[in-house]
Amino acid sequence: MESSFEHLWSDSIKKMKKSVIRELLKLTQKDEIISFAGGLPDPKLFPIEEIKECTIGVLDKYGPKALQYGTTEGDMRLRGHLVNRYRKLEGLDISEDNLIITTASQQGLDLTGRIFLNPGDVVFCGLPSYLGGINAFASYGAELVGIDLDSNGMSSIILRNEVAKAVSNGKRAKFIYIVPDFQNPAGITMDEKRRREILDIAYEFNIPIIEDTPYREVRFNGEPQPMFQKLDTRGMVITLGTFSKVLAPGFRIGWVIGHERWIEKYVTGKQIADLCSSSLIQMTIAEYFERDLYDKNLKLIIEKYREKRDAMLASLEKYMPEGVSWTSPDGGLFLFLYMPENIDSEKLFLNAIEKNVAFVVGNAFYCNNAGRNTMRLNFSFATLDENVEGIKRLSESIKEFL
Ligand SMILES: Cc1ncc(COP(=O)(O)O)c(C=O)c1O
Question: What are the DSSP calls for 105-174, one per residue?
């Protein structure tokens, strides 16, 4: 007889559900399926030869150091390259002391939860919001308060009301979580005015903003809006970055930028989590920067993803029935689709899978369980032709449900 292990699980893991996205992704593994589901970069754009050469270069030059433990803060050369890049491109006034390397930005999110959250603390996030962020905070017992998005991102009016309400109810409001550039999942970018309004709310209530920006450099058109980190004058913004979408997610290397008061806590948290991120990989990426390969590859990624976005948008325009609308992102990897209220995207998902096309049900990104008639579509992974054909198949599914 199988014994029960229920009494062994922590309260925290009992509350957590397996990621819906990861579960649904399993259904999309068949070769014949066109998948708009994962947030995957195009593997054909991974610079394999260059990485091979950089790795050999690092092992030749720094072998023992590359295979040794590194500092928790991260490889000094890599931190230097990142700091210089942010100073030059974004006008940030930062030094290496303001930046810690993480095991990609999912660790940045987990450490954020570890540092700030006790059970019952309140976190404010977009409706919809990145599922990995929501889950990371929920695992520390956070109460998530969802704030509606409009075409400029999170509504500052609703946000202010909700923060004030939480505080007046005696709750501990801890931080505001925002993906301001080409948001995952909605593809929306926040304009400067909205960023300033939200910063004012952070100042008024003395809570930090977590600016999660994995897609910022993948811009196809339009003007970049200043980073929250750049607009902030009081050290109230913590920025998370990653190489996952601009180089390779398999590296698992990201970073956190912020005032030293925050970075010190991230270092303590990371010491508990994993001591340090891979020395070899950090040094390989530093080498990649030193050989001037980073911008060359980024340019290619932007060019290819722009074509893929355009193909998907054109196909949506051509095939989608009346009553269906979608966002038109200026960059990133995703767009978001809204169907008439009576269509449940979870039911539609199974029909779509039969037609060999997959997406992520939008509901997964709503901490208040709303958004049942929405879905997230990724345009970076499938080929150009698949982006056209997949949308055609999806439109047939939707028409059957109308
Ligand atoms: C908004 C956002 N944050 C964080 C992550 C995690 O990325 P990684 O851990 O690969 O850096 C993702 C991945 O899709 C994301 O979309």
Answer: HHHHHHHHHHHH--TT-EEEEEES--HHHHHHHHTTTPEEEEEEEETTEE-HHHHHHHHHHHHHTT--EE
**Which pLDDT value is given to residue 14?**
80
254 Cβ inside 6 Å of ligand 1: yes
Q: CB under 8 Å to 349, separation ≥6 — which residues? A: 24, 358, 359, 361
Length of the chain: 402
The answer to whether residue 29 scores a pLDDT higher than 90 is no
Q: Which atom of ligand 1 is nearest to the CA of 249?
A: 10
Closest CA to 361 of 46, 22, 7: 22
Is the CB–ligand 1 distance for residue 362 below 6 Å?
no
**Distance from the alpha carbon of residue 374 to the mean position of ligand 1, in angstroms:** 21
Phi, psi dihedrals of residue 399, rounded to the nearest 5°? -60, -35
Does the pTM of the predicted model rise above 0.90?
Answer: yes
Q: Which of 26-35, 120-129, 156-165, 285-294 has the lowest mean pLDDT?
A: 26-35
Tell me the CATH number of domain 13-46+296-401, given options 3.10.180.10, 3.30.160.40, 3.90.1150.10, 1.20.120.80.
3.90.1150.10
**What is the number of the ligand 1 atom nearest to the C-alpha of 105?**
11
In CATH, what class is 53-290? alpha beta
* Residue 105: predicted pLDDT: 98
Q: Which two tokens stand for residue 45?
A: 């754009």
Return the pLDDT at 303: 98
Instruction: Copy the structure tokens of residue 297.
Output: 């590859």
pLDDT, mean of residues 368-392: 96
* Ligand 1 centroid distance, CA of 244 (Å): 7
- 39 Cβ closer than 6 Å to some ligand 1 atom: yes
Tokens of 129: 């919001």
- For the chain, residues classed under CATH 3.40.640.10 are 53-290
Q: Which residue has the tokens 């066109």?
A: 34
